[in-house]
Write a structure and sequence with these properties.
The complex is a heterodimer of chains A (248) and B (107). Chain A has 248 residues and is of the alpha/beta class. Helix content of chain A is 40%, strand content 25%. In chain A, strand 9 and strand 10 form a beta hairpin. The longest helix of chain A is centred in the last third of the chain and has 16 residues, at 164-179. With 107 residues, chain B is mostly helical. Chain B has one domain (10-104). Chain B is 74% helix and 0% strand. Chain B has four helices and no strands. The chains are: A alpha/beta (248), B mainly alpha (107).
Chain lengths: 248, 107
């Protein structure tokens, strides 16, 4: 697996309040990384910095072997990065089809029909995005990522406020991208769903990050379990994941 | 070097941004003419080149703000379109219009 995106030693303060001091984020091709942490720990800030939507106070972002002290979202997007912020990616006055077609025409890579099919949006193509529900909008956002065929997708809370059926659709879409070699980073608190989906867990806490490895290893990490998951959920997750693991 | 390459949006988005720029320019022009008419008592359409340039730049800034208002800036960023290009496309109709008025000698 190739390291596609690396954000190293990232620090950021807002109005004197230090959110990140020395955080690191890595995204490997064909792998889903789950960036997890408590509310306000700096997950979204780290994604925003890795994208170039927000500038870090210090740190370096390396995308496809090119290092940036001040990355810009549009520059990284041209080279294959796609970012799904936690809200408001789509223009409410444009239709679903217009968004998907715009991505396809801009890059000439993806397949609008496949994107619409994977995210179950075929009947929504003529609907304005402003008239869609939260879950439908989220599916459209993921579909635009499929139409883009990015090398790296950063998705901030893709499963927030999403019903179980749409969660499955979005999870399948993220796995589809991953199976095509895309490096995927997701955040959120839908721990059960995202632990099932992820290949590796990165824990963001106290301004820094810890790479905990595979989900089973993360669920059995006592500090992570006691600080974030809660011991009951952690043991249940570890049991579920062990049951899912292939027999050796 | 890649950072210096300017990427324009695909055709439908380019036309939309140019169209909005044209509308903003016409509105700005009507406002300028009506204000100058109200102040001086006579209708003057022509502007001095620095004023025309300032008006065009103002229209570009309005285009950028409008893209944010319509919530298109994030989507455009994912398409590799910089805020500079959004402002530039909004400015083009104003520049062309001012140039046309200047060449035609309208006063």
């Amino acid at each position: 697996m190739t390291l596609v995106l690396r954000a190293d030693s990232i620090g950021k303060a807002f109005g004197g309040r230090s959110v990140l001091t020395a955080a690191t984020l890595r995204a490997h091709s064909g792998e889903i990384t789950f960036l997890v942490g408590r509310n306000g720990c700096g997950k979204s800030t780290l994604l925003n910095i890795a994208t170039g939507a927000v500038q870090a106070d210090h740190g370096v972002v390396t995308f496809k072997d090119r290092a940036y002290l001040r990355p810009r979202w549009h520059n990284l997007a041209r080279q294959g990065l796609y970012y799904l912020p936690d809200r408001d990616l789509l223009a409410p006055n444009r239709t679903v089809g217009e968004h998907l077609s715009a991505v396809e025409r801009q890059f000439g890579l993806g397949d609008v029909e496949a994107a619409a099919r994977i995210c179950d949006l075929v009947r929504f193509l003529d609907r304005r995005c402003g008239n869609l529900s939260t879950g439908e909008r989220r599916r459209v956002e993921v579909a635009t990522a499929i139409a883009r065929r990015p090398d790296c997708l950063l998705a901030d809370e893709p499963l927030r406020h999403i019903d179980p059926r749409d969660r499955t659709l979005i999870a399948n879409a993220l796995q589809y991208l991953c199976s095509h070699g895309c490096a995927v980073v997701v955040t959120g608190h839908a721990v059960e769903d995202l632990f099932d989906l992820a290949d590796s867990i990165t824990w963001c806490t106290d301004g820094t990050t810890y790479e905990l490895g595979a989900p089973v290893a993360a669920a059995t990490n006592w500090r992570f379990a006691s600080t974030y998951l809660g011991t009951a959920r952690a043991s249940r997750l570890a049991g579920d994941l062990a049951a899912l693991a292939p027999a050796t | 070097m890649a950072a210096l390459v300017v990427r324009f949006p695909e055709r439908s988005l380019t036309i939309a941004l140019l169209g909005r720029g044209a509308i903003f320019w016409m509105l700005a022009r009507m406002m300028v003419v009506s204000i100058s008419g109200a102040l001086s008592g006579s209708v003057a359409v022509g502007l001095l080149p620095p004023s025309a340039l300032a008006l065009a730049l103002g229209v570009g800034a309005l285009g950028l703000l409008d893209a944010r208002r319509r919530n298109e800036h994030r989507f455009l960023a994912n398409l590799g379109i910089s805020p500079f290009v959004i402002a530039l496309l909004s400015t083009v109709p104003a520049l062309v219009g001012e140039l046309a008025l200047g060449i035609s000698g309208v006063r």
